[in-house]
Amino acid sequence: MATETKFAPGLEGVIAAETAISLLDTEQEKIVIKGQDLIELSKEKGYLDIVHLLLEDSLPNDAERAALEEKLKERYDVPAAIIDILKLLPPHTHPMDGMRTGLSALAGYDEHLLDRSPEVNRDRAYDLLAKLPTITVNSYRILKKQEPVLPRKDLSYSANFLYMITGEVPTEEQAKIFDRSLLLYSEHEMPNSTFTARVIASTQSDLFGALTGAVASLKGHLHGGANEAVMYMLNEVDSVAAFEELLLKKLQRKEKIMGFGHRVYMRKMDPRALMMKESLKKLCEAKGDYRLLEMCEAGEEVMRTEKGLYPNLDYYAAPVYWLLGIPIELYTPIFFSARTVGLSAHVIEQHENNRLFRPRVHYIGEKY
Ligand SMILES: CC(=O)SCCNC(=O)CCNC(=O)[C@H](O)C(C)(C)COP(=O)(O)OP(=O)(O)OC[C@H]1O[C@@H](n2cnc3c(N)ncnc32)[C@H](O)[C@@H]1OP(=O)(O)O
Ligand SMILES: O=C([O-])CC(=O)C(=O)O
């Protein structure tokens, strides 16, 4: 029976779930989130609007958005023991691993862990959205031997996140650009991390476990870890010509270029990358220095000409985060924090209509 089903390496093209959350509609060229186009939403709305859309099924009005922000602020505080746990980690621990540890440890504070009803799961998701930015930033700070930072409730959700990272209150423009990056990262159908979360949830395991597994998945360079790898690559050189040369050498060595290609949008640009490129233009304009934009555009041209490949979101997120003054090791944890909402929506949906994931194999070992 297992050998009768066609094997698709990497499960390419395989339908793994029925979902009412999102779809990458490649024909219409839209990222559909609960019936709305994410790119259009990113022009008018903010991250918390998408949080409301994903968890409450509708875009909020002003009062609902304010109530949501207030609810998150009320839950900002992280148990002191989580900070103590982070302090015990060895100094070379990547913040993504610090975050995974902190997130995993939060399970112990949930008094209703066995309750997987949508209401309780949704409530947990809000708790994680409130606490993860503080855990993320402090796992970095503690590892760098800096004092933990406390969230500021007088700032908006995104402005506070960026403030905790840089130590400076962001300008309105910086906060808006950061907020848009969170929105663009919020949900994307069935990437590896979402599949991981749903597979874990399908055993009736809890939201903490499902998301802890998803952190590990998202850390990899073929997935969320690419945003950090892109920045390290850009920082290897300091001019357009040197960047072009670097990419050509990497391609000659058959290396994969981080920030390019995508399982679904392989031969066209990820629409989120285009939005992020706009943000990069704005930041370059404000700085009066277009070097990073020019390098990235030259990289795009090399990859289009040499490989017919286009940028994904991580390619343009990296220079945007750099110009916002964000340490590179926080790029992937920020991606995860933003994705917490999408992942939670998927776990809620999986728990609501569950069947255990248990595929078969195409056996190529010795016959008995
Ligand atoms: C927000 C996100 O998580 S987006 C993804 C972020 N990840 C990256 O940017 C990492 C770089 N990109 C990649 O490794 C891939 O494009 C992936 C992992 C995103 C998609 O992978 P897959 O769908 O499995 O494609 P696969 O790796 O089989 O590539 C198909 C072909 O394109 C080539 N290719 C794909 N991406 C790249 C790349 N970034 N650089 C060079 N060549 C590439 C492959 O070498 C392969 O060529 P071949 O057929 O001659 O062997
Ligand atoms: O969809 C994917 O495979 C990866 C991706 O872009 C994301 O998770 O945002």
From TrEMBL:
The keyword Transferase applies. Pathway: Carbohydrate metabolism; tricarboxylic acid cycle. InterPro entries: Citrate_synth-like_lrg_a-sub, Citrate_synth-like_sm_a-sub, Citrate_synthase, Citrate_synthase_AS, Citrate_synthase_bac-typ, Citrate_synthase_sf. This is Citrate synthase. SUPFAM superfamilies: Citrate synthase. The lineage of its organism: Bacteria, Bacillati, Bacillota, Bacilli, Bacillales. Belongs to the citrate synthase family. CDD domains: citrate_synt_like_1. Pfam families: Citrate_synt.
